[in-house]
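FAQ: What does a ligand-bound record look like?

Like this one, built around nicotinamide-adenine-dinucleotide:
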Amino acid sequence: MSLPLMKNYINGEWVESKSTTIGDVWNPAQGEKIAQVAYSTAEDVNKAVKAAKEAYWDWRTTPPLTRARYLFRLKEAFEENFEDIARVLTTEQGKAIDEARGEVRRMIENVEHATGVTTLMCGYTLEDIATDIDCMGHPQPMGVFAAVVPYNFPGMVAWWFLPYAIVCGNTFIVKPSEQVPMTQTKIFEVIDEIGFPEGVLNMVHGSRDVVNGLLDHPDIEGISFVGSTPTAKYIYQRCGETGKRVQALGGAKNIVAVMPDADLEAGMPSLITSFYGCTGQRCLSGAILAAVGDAADEIVEKFKAAAQAVKVGDGLEEQTAMGPVVSAAHKERVLGYIEKGIQEGADLILDGRDCKVEGYPNGFFIGPTIFDNVKPDMTIAREEIFGPVVSVVRCKDLDDVIDLINTRGYGNAACIYTNSGATAREFKYRAKPSMIGINIGIAAPMSFFPFGGAGNSMFGDIKAHGQEIFKFFTDTKVVIQRWF
Ligand code: NAD
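The answer part, i.e. the structure of the complex:
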């Protein structure tokens, strides 16, 4: 039986790429191929940019409230297709269905937030900056923007950018991850029903050649990127060379500290979700558990007991708490880190390598894994593993924790569990990462706050969503005027 081939969406039409380079899309729970995706050609990229460029002028002169009304319609259509989108997402990415639902919800919240364009895009005026002279700042759309997104959130991440870009009057191209192209394809089927003007929204599938085509294209004004740190750095540098606006969000090594005074019982469910939710494939996932002071033994013991109870399985089954990792190659990579941890002398106190799920002999499963007594300079305490592997670093006190956090090089998120307001305040003040959780294991800002990190977790200055994103997608034209 031939597998469905994902098509590009260009100028309001579904078009098949003529590319002969075809990739496979997998169901990671079954370990089976379920679809194919063409790695689009330079001609496909050029067609998408041309369509977006031609659509731009009419779209930017469409009143903002009219543009927002398309988003209101889109929100309703997403609600109607909510479960279908979530199920496609889990099928190709593997995460538990409730996590997929949460992702689709966050995606919709960005659409909702973007409808505030008439307030958020407003300019400003100051009269009499000199005698009889007034000055105005008019935020203006700029043209064609594009987003390049990762595999771990196949639905949501593109929507940290897309709704804001288009509601400001720009046109847009999405390049989904080639590992999980089906979710965004499903989303574009919904977009197609709404009847946006042709060329306002486009999607081109593919891999690095498509990305390079977008990065180098003279008619693209800016790139929003989310993915691993090496790619983020590369995108940032290349956009610098070609003079594009860029926001490039990278990887992470997040630390979750548990202080001796923490309420372990109340905090345990969110601690477990922090490390094992999305099978550890979240840029906000806990990676290092900092067990602090003389409570460390108890913290490790209780965390291990809770980790052992995590139900691993096919994400489509409601009772599954943790699905597979995304691919056979990624499973190998994570297993390689477990091997490295053993070699470097950390204590493997929970080993998920031999995880078997009944009825799914070929799935890419790894069970919850814990290393204890990890030292800060070990590989598993420095590099992003992006899987269900927890490194426990035992820390003396808060100073020790802060030092651990601020020497990782990354700066996405840091969390603390404590019952002391003073400790929490000091933590949020001194820890460098940009997203801080206090008795929260996943410090994920909602659409109306900015999302993005510091250090090697982000290159650029304007983060995803929030209020600032309106600045990324506009140029403030300043008019200074005098009338005689
Ligand atoms: P990735 O960097 O491999 O790929 C991301 C995107 O870049 C994909 O669309 C891919 O096709 C493209 N790409 C990959 N290599 C490229 C290259 N050499 N040149 C041009 N384009 C290239 O990332 P991934 O494995 O898909 O996603 C996981 C990573 O994303 C993790 O490091 C995770 O922490 C990070 N992430 C970060 C955030 C955040 O908000 N900071 C959010 C989600 C994921």
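Follow-up question: can I read anything off the structure? Yes, for example: The mean pLDDT is 98.
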